[in-house]
Every structure is written in structure tokens, then in C-alpha cells.
Design goal:
Layout (H helix, E strand, L loop, with lengths): L26 H4 L14 E8 L3 H13 L2 E8 L2 H9 L5 E7 L10 H4 L11 H11 L3 H18 L3 E14 L34 E5 L18 H7 L5 E2 L5 E2 L5 E6 L5 E6 L4 E6 L2 E8 L2 H12 L16 E7 L2 H6 L9 H6 L8 E2 L12 E2 L1 E6 L6 H5 L9 H7 L37 E6 L3 E6 L15 E6 L3 H10 L4 E3 L6 H5 L4 E16 L5 H4 L1 H8 L4 H7 L4 E2 L19 H13 L2
Parallel strand pairs: 1-2, 1-3, 5-18, 13-14
Antiparallel strand pairs: 3-20, 4-19, 4-20, 4-21, 6-7, 8-9, 9-15, 10-11, 12-15, 16-17, 17-18
Length: about 600
């Protein structure tokens, strides 16, 4: 996936076509001239297609379509995301099968990290693309649709930096004989909230784990700003609380977050958050969760967001572009500031907005987090200021990379010089080696969310409930333990679900919906997602980087209808990673004649 998810989240698909046996007949073929009567202008053009074995079906369809339009496709098939990414970073591809899920619900996330110069996952450097991304980021929904249309025109049609395949459903299946149906949420963008999961038989809460699955035992990082892919997003989302959350339909909410309320001040550059006082960091002692006794407070919020926006705060920072619009994060200690600040689009004050629904209204603001006492009206309020009016910053605060870490703990672990960081010697906060069973095990995690990872091996990761997470409230985790089993492929995951080895399978392929529906003990949930699959072109060290004609030959070879047919119309047409969020009216249509025309232009110009 580029993969995606900023999530770079690879789609795990059940592959039923063999690499040497993908023979699809399209509508065009059924009315085409007999084989051999339609000449290609030259010998087939070599092209290397990079992908993972979990996406074997899609790779076969792409290869078949390209072959029909004059390409000789070399398949670079990798067993997992780690080896795929290594090949991609080395430039060993012409096109890579990629995917992206906009996990924050806002369009800027769908483009900034992927296509802006210097973006966390971008391999582009295009001034016009940059200008359109920045312009749209400051606009309202009524304004940005036209700007994003211009962006898609440049990205896909004019310069062919990507070739879209489809957008997807988000689906999961669970054992309804084991899990309480009402406790299992499926959100358009947000990861599955573990704290709400519950057994049908409540007596199991303290005795048995709920068992989930994931594909890879290799976790990028347990530091939320260093990991942003399918191996870690759902884990870090449940390990670190954030200032805000998303509802199941992508609306911003303080529900279940570190904030009771939030407010946008006049001018759309100042944002205020009133903090809860009932969350403490969890730590690990003797491989079990323990209450650290340290409260999560404003100093941790300020520290976490400042390091999130600073590219140089850690080596291999993967998420700084999401937070680059943060100019300043500070503590508010004078209640008069809240009284004088007006709400955006309203004559009400920021204080009146922050006071709504509080059991005791704000009477005192304290600097020391240990002195906050919400029941007595003593609160901490954090003010965030953006570099320019940028309401989409709130969506980024709901992203796992904005998870709140312990200032005290992280500073005590990350004592190395960032500029001289040695991966073979320095152990950074969140390094997976520190939580992996074996001689290097030394779990130093302090997590602010509902669960904490106790230990992992190649078979499973074991998480325990944070005893200091909103105890006594409806947000307190229901179940004492969560296990994540590492199961490499989708077929095995579905088998494990059906046999009772796992209780929930997050990411069921559309091709397996019928299997799930036919099993009476299973329940299927599905909704349209913000996930898009596409071909990403190498823009650095191959001929395809230099030739828009060659890229367009690939673009017009792709027939999205064939993907939709294979997935029984449980996929949807896409133009770019924006497609599930912004409807621009543009459409990519397969055109074999155009494909061969652009390929001929490329070969004649060599």
C-alpha cells in the first residue's frame, strides 16, 4: 500500500486466481476483432508491477489488463508489507499496487501525506499539486470541491501520477454467540474501539480475553508519531487517548476523549479544550497492567502535540505533516481569556461552550495537573493555535498520531541524540523490541488509552485494561484482556473465526461475505469506507518517472468495471484517494485505443 493508511493499510483480499491463470473477458473483448488482427505498434513494453501476496487477485487483474494493451508485465510479489516497503523504498518497481484509508474523515488527510512535496509517504514534488492541496485546506466544503476537482485533474488525468482501481467497503465479522452484538462498532474512519467490546456472558470479562487478529507480528512503533500503517494504527488508537474522537459517521466529538468539550474561536485559528481529570497512565509490572499513579494532563498534551508537529523530534517521524499547521499549544490559566474569546460564527463566549454539560462549571484554571478537580470546578484548559485558519486540524487531533504520551516517561527513555540515532544501539520509546518476549524485553510503555500492550511474540500480542482509564464511567473498558493473534492471510483468519480461535475478524473481503452470512454463529457488518486502491507510479528512478505518455498508457489500460464484477459490485469506482469523501464529478474510463496511442508515443520517443 503506499501504501496507505497513512494508514498505509494494505487490503487483505482472498485470492482465488492463480498468478498464471487470470483470464478475464471484458465487454470490449467480446466484440473485438479476432486475435492477431489488431496489431500493437511495437513489441510489448516491459513494466514491473510491485505488490504483496495478499493482493494477488488484484495483481492478476492488473497484469491481465496491461498485457492486453501492449505491456510485458514483470511481477515483483512480496510476502508482507515490510518487504514490500523495502522494495518500494529501493525503487524496484514501475508501478506499485497501493491503498490508502482516510482515517480522519477529512479530505486534506486523503492527499497531503501522499502527494505534497515532502509528505510522509509522498514521492511527488510538484508545485502545482502543492498549491492546490494548500488552497483546499483553507476552504469550506462549498469552496473546496472545485479546488479538489482541479487537483484530481492534475494528479490523474494531466500527469497520471496514479491509476485508480476502486474504493471499498469496510467490513468485519464477529462471533455473535461470544460477543455482545451491541458492543461491536464499525466506524467509517475510526478504528474499532476496544473499550466498548464486551462478552455476551458478562461473567467472562475478568477471566477470558477477547481475541482479535492482525496480519503482521512486526509492529512499526508503539510511539504514536512513529507508526502510521496497518500494523499499528488500531493498536495505538486503543493505547493512547486523544483530545477528540470521530463518530461512526465521521463527525467530530469529545465523547470518550480526553476533553469534555472543545470550542473554535472567532477567526478559525484558535481552538480550546477543557480536559478530564480521571485518566491516569498505565504501565507494565511483571507483564501485567498497573496504574502508574500519574495523571494525564495539559503538560502531556502540550508535549505530545509539539513533538507531533516537529519533524526532528524523533528519528523516522511518520506523521509530522498531519500536524504541521499547529503553530502553538499552550495552557490557559486565566478564566478571563475564555470569557473574552468569542465562538466562531456566534456571539457566545468560548467559556460558555466549554461549560456545556459539565457537572461543575469552570471556576478555576490550574497549571498543575495534579491539582485539577473537576467536581470542584477546577480544570485544565489547553489552547491550540494554527498557522492559518485551518478547521481540518481538529480531524487530525482525532488521529492516532495525536495520541497523548507521558512527557515524563518519554523524556526519560528518549535520551539519545536524534541526529546521531543508531538503530542498532539506541532503544527509543515504543520500540517493538522492548515489548517482544526474549532477552531484550523491557516494557517501558506508559499509555493513556483504555489498553496497554504487555508483551508480544510471533504468535500474539497481549493487552490489558488500563486500571486508571475513566474508572466508574461508561468509558471504562469492559473486558480485562485483549489478545491479537497474528494470522498472515485472510483465508486463515476467516477459518480461525469460524472455528472459534478468534472472536472478530477486522477486514473481511467482499468475496467472503456469502461465507460469513451462511454461518449462523457469525454476524457481518459492512459500510462504505474511505479506502481506495490504486497503482502508484515510480517517480524517481525509472523511465516511467520521465514519461507521462507511459503513465497514461497504464492509466487507460485499467478497467475498473472488471474489479467491480469480480467483487460482485461490493467495490466502487474511484478517481483518487479523495473519491469516498469529495464528489468532483470526474471519472476514469478504460480506453484501449488511448492506451495504445500513448504507448506508441512513448516508444517512438525513446
Amino acid at each position: 500500500m503506499m501504501i496507505k493508511n497513512k494508514l498505509v493499510i494494505p487490503l487483505v483480499l482472498g485470492a482465488s486466481l492463480l498468478l498464471n491463470g487470470c483470464n478475464l473477458t471484458t465487454k470490449d473483448e467480446s466484440t473485438a476483432k479476432p486475435a492477431g488482427t489488431e496489431a500493437v505498434s511495437s513489441a510489448p513494453v516491459d513494466i514491473e508491477l510491485l505488490g504483496m501476496s495478499s493482493n494477488e487477485t488484484d495483481l492478476n487483474i492488473v497484469r491481465d489488463q496491461l498485457t492486453k494493451n501492449g505491456f510485458n508485465v514483470k511481477l515483483n510479489l512480496q510476502p508482507d508489507y515490510g518487504t514490500f516497503k523495502a522494495q518500494q523504498d529501493a525503487g524496484n518497481f514501475d508501478i506499485a499496487l497501493s491503498s490508502w484509508t482516510t482515517v480522519t474523515g477529512n479530505p486534506d488527510y486523503a492527499v497531503r501525506s501522499l502527494f505534497k512535496t515532502g509528505g510522509d509517504y509522498s514521492i511527488l514534488a510538484d508545485a502545482e499539486i502543492d498549491k492546490l492541496i494548500d488552497q483546499a485546506s483553507t476552504q469550506t466544503q462549498e469552496q473546496f470541491t472545485e479546488t479538489y476537482k482541479k487537483f484530481e485533474q492534475q494528479l490523474v488525468f494531466d500527469k497520471a501520477y496514479i491509476a485508480p482501481l476502486y474504493s471499498s467497503l469496510k467490513a468485519q465479522a464477529f462471533n455473535q454467540d461470544i460477543l455482545k452484538k451491541e458492543s461491536v462498532r464499525l466506524s467509517k474512519s475510526r478504528s474499532l474501539p476496544w473499550e466498548e467490546l464486551d462478552f455476551k456472558d458478562a461473567s467472562k470479562r475478568a477471566k477470558e480475553p477477547i481475541i482479535l487478529q492482525s496480519t503482521s507480528p512486526s509492529l512499526t512503533s508503539l510511539d504514536p508519531i512513529k507508526g502510521n500503517d496497518g500494523s499499528i494504527n488500531i493498536i495505538n488508537t486503543n493505547q493512547y487517548v486523544r483530545l477528540l474522537n470521530l463518530t461512526d459517521d465521521d463527525k467530530l466529538t469529545a465523547e470518550g476523549s480526553l476533553s469534555y468539550n472543545f470550542a473554535i474561536a472567532e477567526g478559525n485559528s484558535d481552538y480550546y479544550f477543557v480536559l478530564r481529570d480521571d485518566i491516569r497512565f498505565a504501565r507494565i509490572k511483571d507483564k501485567l497492567a498497573a496504574d502508574s499513579g500519574e495523571r494525564v494532563g495539559a503538560e502531556d498534551v502540550i508535549f505530545s502535540l509539539n513533538r507531533a508537529k516537529n519533524k526532528d523530534s524523533v528519528p523516522n517521524h511518520r506523521t509530522f505533516t498531519l500536524h504541521e499547521h499547529i503553530q502553538k499549544v499552550e495552557l490557559v490559566t486565566d478564566p478571563a481569556v475564555l470569557e473574552s474569546a468569542k465562538l466562531s460564527g456566534s456571539s457566545d463566549t468560548v467559556k460558555s461552550s466549554l461549560d456545556k454539560g459539565l457537572a461543575s462549571k469552570i471556576s478555576t484554571l490550574v497549571a498543575d495537573k495534579s491539582q485539577a478537580s473537576n467536581k470542584d470546578g477546577k480544570y485544565q484548559v489547553v489552547k491550540l493555535t494554527t498557522t492559518k485558519p485551518f478547521p481540518q486540524v481538529l480531524n487530525y487531533l482525532a488521529h492516532q498520531s495525536a495520541g497523548i504520551v507521558s512527557k515524563k516517561q518519554v523524556e526519560s527513555i528518549n535520551t539519545y541524540d536524534v541526529a546521531k540515532y543508531d538503530v542498532n544501539k539506541d532503544i527509543a520509546y515504543g520500540d517493538q523490541s522492548a515489548v517482544t518476549e526474549g532477552p531484550k524485553y523491557n516494557n517501558t510503555l506508559f499509555t493513556s488509552g483504555p489498553y496497554i500492550l504487555a508483551y508480544k511474540n510471533d504468535y500474539e500480542a497481549v493487552f490489558y485494561k488500563n486500571p486508571g482509564y475513566m474508572p466508574g464511567t461508561k468509558y471504562e473498558p469492559k473486558v480485562n484482556s485483549i489478545k491479537v493473534r497474528f494470522i498472515k492471510d485472510a483465508e486463515s483468519s476467516l477459518s480461525a473465526l469460524r472455528s472459534g480461535e478468534i472472536h472478530l475478524f477486522y477486514g473481511v473481503s467482499e468475496t467472503k461475505f456469502d461465507v460469513v452470512k451462511a454461518d449462523s454463529k457469525l454476524s457481518l457488518q459492512s459500510i462504505p469506507s474511505n479506502a481506495v486502491s490504486y497503482l502508484l507510479f515510480n517517480t524517481k528512478n525509472r523511465d516511467i518517472a520521465k514519461s507521462a505518455d507511459l503513465r497514461k498508457a497504464v492509466l487507460y489500460s485499467i478497467n475498473q468495471d472488471e474489479f467491480l464484477a469480480y467483487y460482485k459490485n461490493n467495490k466502487f469506482k474511484a478517481v483518487s484517494t479523495l473519491s469516498p469523501i469529495v464528489k468532483t464529478g470526474l471519472e476514469v474510463k478504460a480506453d484501449p485505443a488511448k492506451a495504445k496511442e500513448f504507448l506508441a508515443k512513448y516508444t517512438s520517443g525513446k
